[in-house]
Amino acid sequence: MGLMGEGFVILWHDIAAEADGAYNAWHTQEHMPERIALPGFLRSRRGLNRALDRQHYFTLYEGDTLESFVSPEYQRSLNVPTEWTQRVAPHFRNFQRMACALAYSSGRGVGGALATFRCLFPAGADEALLAGQLQPALEWIAAREGVTGVHVGVARDSFSGGHTKEIDLRPAMHETPFDIVVIVESIGLAEMDRELAAIEAELADAGLPGLVAQSYDMAYMLSRADA
């Protein structure tokens, strides 16, 4: 089945050390249930890798459509943050968030770990051309040992929510923009890390510039059925 729905919101960030425990409690007990209860939100997951140099945390929200991420209900949650959210949000660091259209998805189930590969559009390529250009690389990645799923999202900034009160709670951050994200799921973090360099090289050979590769253990997942 791959990823659910037609789009997703994807995030990377760090948390100030003094608030790490508070963040995980908030995200598990309040924030993910709050989000997954919104119309069109289907499944959410949080990843963690403390060995990374930066952006130790990863979050993915799978949505029915891209419109799920600009609904009145979602905008209300972003502009009326809870008291707990107001306490945690100032501790975010190196934050990056983007809504993406799901352009490709393969595999079944949910892997125990994943890696994200952010990159730019190749010069002169449009989305249709890119899909054909990437297909052999995506099939090669899917056949690697331990890989359980491969997904591609194309950034859609117009569905990313705009300026909200929740943004105002976080310190100003300026992360490098990206056009495409490839998500590779695996049976575990050790298996994912063994394949990381080879997958990054394959995507580079397929013509994707500006690659940023990061791997994550699955920390928590919540679906609409669970909530």
Q: Enumerate the spans where pLDDT stays under 50 for 5 or more consecutive residues.
A: none
SS summary, helix count: 6
Number of domains: 1
Order the strands across the largest sheet as they lie in space: 1-3-2-8-5-7-6-4
- The secondary-structure class comes to alpha+beta
Order of helices and strands: EHEEHHEEHEHEHE
CATH architecture: 2-Layer Sandwich
How much beta, percentage-wise? Answer: 25-35%
Span between N and C termini?
21 Å
Task: Determine Rg (CA atoms, Å).
Answer: 17 Å
What profile does the largest beta sheet have? 8 strands, antiparallel, barrel
DSSP strand count:
8
Describe what you observe in this structure.
Helix content is 30%, strand content 33%. The model has no long low-confidence stretch (mean pLDDT 94). It is built from six helices and eight strands. The chain has helices at 20-36, 72-79, 83-88, 127-142, 165-169, 189-205, and strands spanning 7-15, 41-48, 57-63, 92-107, 113-119, 147-155, 180-186, 212-223. A hairpin with an 8-residue loop joins strand 2 and strand 3 (57-63). The longest helix is centred in the first third of the chain and has 17 residues, at 20-36. It is globular, with a radius of gyration of 17 Å. The chain has a single domain (7-223), classed as Alpha-Beta Plaits. An eight-stranded antiparallel beta barrel has the order 1-3-2-8-5-7-6-4. It is an alpha+beta fold and 227 residues long.
